[in-house]
Design goal:
alpha/beta, 7-stranded parallel β-sheet, 41% helix, globular, binds uridine-5'-diphosphate, coniferyl-alcohol glucosyltransferase activity, UDP_glucos_trans
Amino acid sequence: MKSTKPHVALLASPGMGHLIPVLELGKRLVLQHEFHVTIFVVATDTATVESQLRNLPNPKLLNVVSLPPVDVSGLVDPDASIVTKIIVMMRETLPALRSAIISITRQLRPTALVVDLFGSEAMAIADEFEMLKYVFIASNAWFLSATAYFPTINKRLEEEHINEKKPLMIPGCKPVRFEDTLEAFLDPKDQVYVEYLRLGVEIPTADGILINTWEDLEPTTLAAMRDATSLGRVTKVSVYPIGPLVRQARPSPVQEDSVMGWLEKQPSESVMYVSFGSGGTLSSNQMIELAWGLELSQHRFVWVVRPPMDDDASGAFFKVDNNGSDGTPNYLPDGFLTRNSDKGLVVPMWAPQAEILSHPSIGGFLSHCGWNSTMESVVNGVPMIAWPLYAEQKMNATMLTEELGVAVRSKEFSMTPIVEREEIERMVRKIMVDKEGDGIRSRVKELKYNAHKALSIVGSSYNSLSKVAKNCEASFQSQLSKARG
Ligand code: UDP
């Protein structure tokens, strides 16, 4: 096939939190720059992947290739962290990715490979085929700074952080408090630590790093990353803030008995949406406290529920077991659904979050602070209750509450493993109606406009992605002239 536009290949690691923003990036490259885009998906669950593909405005927009599933059960400890499992899965997929790149090259040779955080080993394939290589961080610049900086610190600083619980001081950036640190940093004997250090070394070898943030959101961190005078600068590679990249709500007819149908009947900004992302779970006791907290607040809510797990905050994907007297899942207080039938809706396992957050009746979001959820809340001007569980979510919660002032967070998180019902009730009221929450509600609206400005045709994120596109165009032209001899 002959083309006047570059072909870019993107690689998405397993998990909706990785696939959704990679699809969005692919869409932007097609819609804004008319590139050809192939997305390689490493999927563990084809049904959810297909559901995301149905959200595309046009199924032919992107060429999506599912790489064959790999079984890593014999390669990782069954108790290994989810991050270790994903990284090993990505490693085992490399031969299939290589063959798939050879295969698409027969149609149209790709100019660049964009990998996400866990795909950095695939950059060797980009080198082999003389492609540009980019890393796309589907999180923020502060998280990138911690990841890229960690492998460079000496033993003394590492010990101060891990053992003496001192903050991790990153040149020019906000320190990471021990309480907020990445679990991957904490145990040098764990495989995740070793893998993570490798990521931190490999990511800055890319030709550029794309980040799901924007200039005005993290000006200090981005300036520190670009400060050529700083000896300890975390990365010397060009960073491109191209966000917020979020899935747009898909316009479709509203069914009366669906969650969207229910939202249609609620007053403006009256509903708290509660969700812990694609894999977050709470302990049994915490589920009960949260149920009572929502009930006591007397505010409307939509709650995406999953069966609790007492020992793994990232271990979702279990069957919902309804056996309460009124159909209330057995892990919620008995009669919860009946008592709240006029105020609340409980949705098992998965809900159309982009559509929900953009609905005018939503007034708040109790979120695990996954970065996609955070961006989806901000672009819709929805204030948050920050309830971080794992990964970089505690850093995100700190940024949202202490720096941006668009969320409230429980003080009890650091003291006790359970946030009690009265505290939850207080936070819901603060976000939804109390005078104390006025500042939070108005700041998130300002941030919404700022985010939309960054994405507009004269905005910083649009401009940033255009720079990446220009690099791809230049490389494509030189490929063409080489081919012509
Ligand atoms: N999501 C959704 N419905 C759900 C739960 C999650 O559509 O019931 C989407 C959500 O909109 C977001 C992604 O899944 O785009 C989750 O990504 P995030 O970074 O927030 O968290 P993760 O799941 O990676 O922890």
